[in-house]
């Protein structure tokens, strides 16, 4: 047990002694040390000793310590000398209590054996300090430290780590050093725990650093656990749109698709006062500026509610409208038919399509794409004199980015100035983009609508009415019809005249035109105009109720762009997140639609304080599941000549069926494949499924295969009232007929059932062939070619035909042609059983008759050889066997060559195969064979040379057949 002994100086100098007791023991204290002070080691030392020297006159028997819960005791070591010791009752703990202070008092042994009159000394103060040992290690206050720094900046201090030590002494409880354990990091830490970067950080190089830091106390003890420090690098704050996906896929038929569901605007805590964003959907590369229904312009007018009276001047080429044949087209089906005019082509509109003088109110509508051209006039539509005077009655043309309508008044009106030219200066006329133009003309005013927006003319010039004339006019598209014999200041010369003498074209147009229409008698209203122009695809937004009042949203007419404006950034972000793309077409045009967002941000000073870069992306419209239009029905049948010549005619498509299907690839379930068995091919991953769908058709065309229709004795007819009930239009020519207009497949099917073919001169007609093709979306989806062949059954006397066949072999060729065409036909008439057999049957009758004749001749020879000893009944049986023998002898004719014999056998086999094509034909042949036997049996027998001659004629007919 260690101890600390404190000895007071003894004897003390007189000058420094203080007697603090009388008639008893006294402590001798130094005047400079009024207390007894010592140090006691901390645990594990158990006792602390104070050796006390006492100035006394008697023996010292004990010491008494005064104080509460004093963990010390005083023990006398030498009574005579008064030496004693103070010791600890338990181990000292500096962390619990660093110092102890108490008072101690001595008392002597008293007088006599019983210790009477015991004396006490005065009280002395004892102060004990407990020495510390380095028993504890540093501990960090936090388990993890985190901080965020901005890239490109060097900090004096990023964060502070702090550790503590539980030791009680200053030496062991103080943290003298911190250290970064992780090697090769651009950070350092000082003795106070402050971490800073040693170089500028780069967000692109490292977005987060993880450091391990430890601490040391002044006794060199290391922290029990190192601490993790995470430092995130934040990119330099740049105002921009965050959370934007560059590629957005749109699946057709899924409705509305959100474009920016997670997007928000980062403003870097700038004091924003207003935000304005423009979102543009770029679809100029699709059709005429966006995805629209690709029906013909005339069908679109009907769908949009325009009344009758609309004439289509640029229709797609067909058998009934062929004046646009030869014009270059776009060769695609992303829009209706687009025609290209390169400055050399022009077309003449047939007479009667449009009234010569447009007196009443009328409308001109056209799609046009035109770029900056020459300074010459470029004519879109022109009605001018056919000859001599070259007067322009009305025209629509482009000149120096101006759209001009020329309209000369009727000659019957008063001779005074009238508005004659209307000028509009338009950027759209020269920007090389598609635009929709509608002119509502009601003299003396003209209203122009471009892409649904109305424009007033900036200049109107007047002129006298035209003089009365009997000269016919010519309506042309792409140029003006001119004549060299006359002069007109409005015309320009060209170097290459067209065919037709001195007549020529001038003022050629350079650009693209589509859907050129004239509607007489009524003006188009704004609703119809908007319908004609409106896209089937565009942007849409559903404003949340909580932000509807805080943000303003505006669309352009085609809904290809919109603007969002507001001052609340949170509300602004919510509106942007509700912007969507919508395509209402059943079969949208696949491909890319580019997106662009342009943003302007203003601060308190009213200027653009934050520059937000534009955002670009695109919507990818996936390929739609394309329909397959199938036409089916009876494609081969025969009718009597009387039916063709009747008032009703023959129905061409009595059982026509129109079906449209789409084919989908469906992924198979792997579990079901395993359940079905291991025999299945494991490489098959998808199953093809066909589904029938319903959609519209816009054209069905019936054309003649072979020679054109002869209008003098044949025609294709359809009840016009049935067309009008369904809002469809029919055009016909000597090539066939075309039904146009948007309507359901069921309505088209019903109409096609009603088409009849009439021919009132069938003597030389044996068959007629027709082809039917239907299409949807102006030819984007086309059906199969459904061909129908109709044969004519001619009524004739079979006996006469047989005689003619034998007496006039030259007639066999046309008869044989008819018989071949009839083979395999479906005889669908209910009364066809009563019809006289055809030419093929007649040939068979002739052949069988000749065989019967040869059989009879053979029977006659047999009877002569047997001396006519057999009975009639027996001879009948022998006749049957002899018929077989004779048939065998017929095939070997001594008058035939080997080649003729061989060819006859092959042709007989072909006849047998043809006769087996149908049961009805076999029945007719057998019936006619019986009747022929009866007829031949009644004829007298011929000589052997005559029979051979008939046999040769039969062989010739067989070869011809």
What report would you give on this structure?
Belongs to the calsyntenin family. Helix 9 crosses helix 11, helix 10 packs across helix 11 and helix 11 packs antiparallel against helix 15. The radius of gyration is 58 Å and the shape is elongated. The chain is built from 15 helices and 57 strands. With 961 residues, it is α+β, with helices and mostly antiparallel strands. Strands 23, 24, 26, 31, 32, 33 and 38 form a seven-stranded antiparallel sheet that branches. It has five domains: 105 residues, Cadherins (Immunoglobulin-like, Sandwich); 96 residues, Sandwich (Immunoglobulin-like); 121 residues, Immunoglobulin-like (Sandwich), CATH 2.60.40; 217 residues, Jelly Rolls (Sandwich); 145 residues. The N terminus and C terminus are likely disordered. A hairpin with a 5-residue loop joins strand 40 and strand 41.
Reading off the top of the CATH hierarchy, the class of the largest domain is best stated as Mainly Beta
Distance between the termini: 145 Å
Portion in helices: 10-25%
Q: Give Rg in angstroms.
A: 58 Å
CATH architecture of the largest domain: Sandwich
Q: Report the β-strand fraction as a percent range.
A: 25-35%
The 3D shape can be described as elongated
What is the helix tally? Answer: 15
Oligomer classification: single chain
Structural category: alpha+beta
Strands, count: 57
Average pLDDT level? 75
Residue runs with pLDDT of under 50 for 5 or more positions? 1-37, 43-51, 485-502, 672-680, 797-837, 867-961
CATH topology of the largest domain: Jelly Rolls
Biggest sheet record: 7 strands, antiparallel
> How many domains, as an integer?
5
């Amino acid at each position: 047990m260690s101890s600390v002994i404190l000895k007071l100086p003894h004897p003390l100098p007189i000058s420094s002694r203080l007697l603090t007791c009388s008639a008893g023991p006294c402590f001798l204290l130094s005047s400079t040390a009024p207390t007894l002070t010592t140090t006691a080691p901390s645990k594990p030392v158990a006792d602390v000793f104070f050796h006390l020297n006492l100035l006394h006159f008697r023996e010292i028997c004990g010491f008494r310590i005064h104080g509460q819960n004093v963990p010390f005791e005083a023990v006398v070591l030498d009574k005579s000398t008064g030496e004693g010791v103070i010791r600890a009752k338990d181990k000292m703990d500096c962390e619990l209590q660093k110092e102890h202070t108490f008072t101690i008092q001595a008392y002597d042994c008293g007088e006599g054996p019983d210790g009477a009159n015991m004396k006490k000394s005065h009280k002395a103060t004892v102060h004990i300090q407990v020495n510390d040992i380095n028993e504890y290690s540093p501990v960090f206050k936090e388990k993890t430290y985190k901080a965020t720094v901005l890239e490109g900046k060097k900090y004096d201090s990023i964060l502070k780590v702090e550790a503590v030590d539980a030791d009680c002494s200053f030496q062991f409880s103080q943290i003298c050093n911190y250290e970064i354990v992780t090697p090769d990091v651009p950070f350092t830490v000082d003795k106070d725990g402050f971490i800073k970067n040693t170089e500028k950080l780069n967000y692109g190089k490292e977005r987060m650093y993880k450091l391990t830091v430890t601490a040391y106390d002044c006794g060199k003890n290391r922290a029990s656990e190192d601490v993790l420090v995470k430092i995130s690098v934040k990119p330099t704050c740049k105002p921009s749109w965050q959370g934007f996906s560059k590629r957005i896929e749109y699946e057709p038929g899924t409705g509305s698709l959100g474009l920016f569901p997670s997007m928000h605007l980062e403003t870097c805590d700038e004091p924003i006062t207003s935000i304005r964003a423009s979102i543009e959907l770029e679809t100029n590369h699709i059709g005429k500026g966006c995805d629209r229904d690709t029906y013909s312009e005339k069908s679109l007018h009907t769908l949009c509610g325009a009344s009758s009276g609309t004439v289509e001047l640029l229709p797609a080429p067909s058998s009934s409208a062929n004046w646009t044949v030869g014009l270059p087209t776009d060769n695609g089906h992303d829009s209706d038919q687009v025609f290209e005019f390169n400055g050399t082509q022009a077309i003449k509109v047939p007479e009667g399509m449009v009234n010569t003088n447009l007196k009443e109110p009328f409308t001109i509508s056209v799609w046009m794409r035109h770029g900056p051209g020459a300074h010459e006039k470029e004519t879109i539509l022109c009605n001018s004199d056919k000859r001599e005077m070259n007067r322009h009655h009305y025209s629509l043309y482009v000149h120096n980015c101006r759209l001009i309508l020329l309209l000369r008044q009727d000659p019957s009106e008063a001779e005074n100035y009238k508005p004659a030219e209307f000028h509009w200066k338009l950027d759209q006329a020269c920007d090389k983009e598609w635009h929709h133009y509608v002119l509502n003309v009601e003299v003396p005013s003209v209203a122009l609508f471009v892409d649904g927006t109305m424009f007033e003319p900036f200049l109107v010039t007047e002129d006298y009415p035209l003089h009365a004339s009997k000269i016919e006019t010519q309506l042309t598209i792409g140029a003006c019809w001119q004549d060299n014999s006359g002069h007109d200041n409005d015309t320009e010369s060209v170097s290459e005249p067209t065919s037709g003498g001195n007549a020529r074209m001038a003022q050629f147009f350079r650009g693209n035109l589509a859907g050129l229409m004239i509607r007489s008698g009524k003006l188009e209203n704004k609703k119809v105009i908007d319908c004609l122009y409106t896209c089937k695809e565009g942007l849409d937004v559903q404003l949340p109720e909580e932000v509807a009042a805080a943000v303003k949203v505006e669309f352009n007419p085609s809904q290809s762009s919109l603007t969002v404006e507001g001052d609340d950034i949170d509300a602004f972000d919510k509106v942007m997140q509700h912007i969507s793309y919508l395509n209402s077409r059943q079969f949208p045009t696949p491909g890319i639609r580019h997106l662009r967002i342009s943003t302007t941000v203003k601060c308190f000073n009213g200027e653009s304080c934050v520059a937000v870069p534009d955002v670009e992306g695109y919507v990818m419209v996936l390929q739609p599941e394309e329909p397959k239009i199938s036409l089916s029905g009876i494609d081969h049948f025969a009718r009597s000549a009387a039916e063709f010549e009747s008032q009703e005619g023959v129905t061409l498509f009595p059982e026509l069926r129109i079906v449209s299907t789409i084919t989908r690839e469906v992924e198979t379930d792997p579990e079901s494949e395993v359940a079905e068995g291991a025999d299945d091919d494991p490489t098959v991953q998808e199953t093809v499924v066909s589904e029938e769908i319903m959609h519209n058709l816009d054209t069905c065309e019936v054309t003649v295969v072979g020679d054109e229709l002869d209008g003098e004795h044949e025609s294709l007819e359809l009840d016009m009232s049935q067309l009008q009930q369904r809002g469809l239009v029919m055009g016909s020519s000597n090539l066939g007929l075309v039904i146009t207009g948007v309507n359901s497949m069921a309505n088209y099917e019903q109409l096609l059932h009603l088409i009849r073919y009439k021919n009132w001169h069938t003597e030389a007609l044996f068959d007629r062939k027709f082809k039917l093709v239907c299409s949807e979306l102006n030819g984007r989806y086309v059906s199969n070619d459904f061909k129908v062949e109709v044969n004519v059954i001619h009524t004739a006397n079979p006996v006469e035909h047989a005689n003619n066949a034998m007496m006039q072999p030259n007639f066999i060729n046309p008869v044989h042609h008819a018989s071949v065409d009839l083979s395999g036909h479906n005889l669908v008439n209910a009364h066809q059983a009563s019809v006289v057999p055809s030419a093929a049957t007649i040939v068979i009758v002739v052949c069988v008759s000749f065989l019967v004749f040869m059989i009879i001749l053979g029977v006659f020879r047999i009877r002569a050889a047997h001396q006519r000893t057999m009975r009639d009944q027996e001879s009948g049986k022998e006749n049957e066997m002899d018929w077989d023998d004779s048939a065998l002898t017929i095939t070997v004719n001594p008058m035939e060559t080997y080649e003729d014999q061989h060819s006859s056998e092959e042709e007989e086999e072909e006849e047998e195969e043809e006769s087996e094509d149908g049961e009805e034909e076999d029945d007719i042949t057998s019936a006619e064979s019986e009747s022929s036997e009866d007829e031949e049996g009644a004829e007298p027998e011929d000589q052997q040379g005559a029979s051979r001659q008939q046999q040769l004629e039969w062989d010739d007919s067989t070869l011809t057949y």
